[in-house]
Amino acid sequence: AKTGNRGEYSFFTRDMADDIRERVRLLQALRHAIERQRLFLVYQPQLSLDTGHVCGVEALLRWRGDDGQLIPPDRFIPIAEHSGLIVSIGEWVMRTACRQQVELAQQGFPQIRMAINVSVIQLRHPQFLRSLSEALSESGADPRCIELEITESVAMLEADFISRMLDQIKALGISIALDDFGTGFSSLSYLRRLNIDRLKIDRSFISSITSGGRAQRIPELVMQLGQTLGLAVIAEGVEVAEQAAALSLIGCNEAQGYLYARPMESRMLLDWLRART
Ligand code: C2E
Ligand code: CA
Ligand code: CA
Ligand code: CA
């Protein structure tokens, strides 16, 4: 902090003021982008390491700016969450991803799971369950093929609320994955209580899996935890064959990452899927 001209301590530094201006600008641009339908979804395949089959796809949000450049979700999702815009964006994501699941089924891939990222701001919204079941019923999506990804750190907040929420989501026939697993300090007793289906090992642990260091053992621990609790495990951010081999070795049977495919737009995804079969 800097000392202002009257000698008092000013709270905002120049950098913070710039930062706030940038956020306000982005928020206005985001509102505009929603109106003009500049948001879209891309889909990244999730593969079985045993068979090479595609088990699922993860829907990931993209924003094309006026200059044609993509604005990464890590930049605009925090702003959307802060402003509450994530609620309507998230409803659109759920509807669109559910329709895409139906499209996949109609194109000959009825067993492919559609994973949808959900923010805690959405979960806390009183209309969340209604929006979710409407997305299902309007699209005709198969709930057994819909999975919600909730970050581990979020699931650890407000334990009773989240745990009841997950029960209600599961009652719709939808499955739940804990995203970025290993970064959120879950307690084992709490994990056992949560009605979840899958642990998604965070990318940071996959990138160090062949390092030879102690961090290398973390995915193995997650595998053991998954086995103990009866949960499936998937690895994210698999970029090289050595990582996939190391995962196979510890019994991890699903993976997602640039090694297999980048996130793709709907049309490309269908071409990609057809080319594999
Ligand atoms: P996430 O849910 O952990 O998604 C995985 C991120 O890793 C994606 O980044 C994906 O493109 C990227 N990725 C996949 N494979 C690889 C790889 O092999 N190497 C590397 N380095 N990266 C890989 P993306 O699409 O930029 O999304 C960033 C984050 O934004 C997501 O992290 C998620 O937290 C959030 N997000 C994306 N779409 C949505 C959405 O529809 N709703 C909400 N609430 N959050 C979203
Ligand atoms: Ca995710
Ligand atoms: Ca993740
Ligand atoms: Ca992440």
TrEMBL record:
Residues 23-277 form the EAL domain. Coiled coil: none annotated. This is EAL domain-containing protein. It comes from Uliginosibacterium sediminicola. The lineage of its organism: Bacteria, Pseudomonadati, Pseudomonadota, Betaproteobacteria, Rhodocyclales. The chain holds residues 463 to 739 of 739 of the full protein.
